[in-house]
Amino acid sequence: MNVAVRYYTQSGNSKKLADAIAKEVGVKAESVDVSLGEKVDCLFLVTALYAGGINGAVTKFIEGNKDKI
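-> structure tokens emitted (69 positions)
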């Protein structure tokens, strides 16, 4: 099973959570600035809600990688 962990953080808390998830599943957590290289079976996407929505960088990541998820 191909697993990936991506995160977006402003304060560092989402990165800490993503790192903990990545450690458990045996992969490296990377920022949403890093595109998925290949199709994944399971994607952990860690972010927070900012002013009732997600950051534009997360939306851009999802739209740019939707064929790999």
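The first helix runs from residue 13 to 25.
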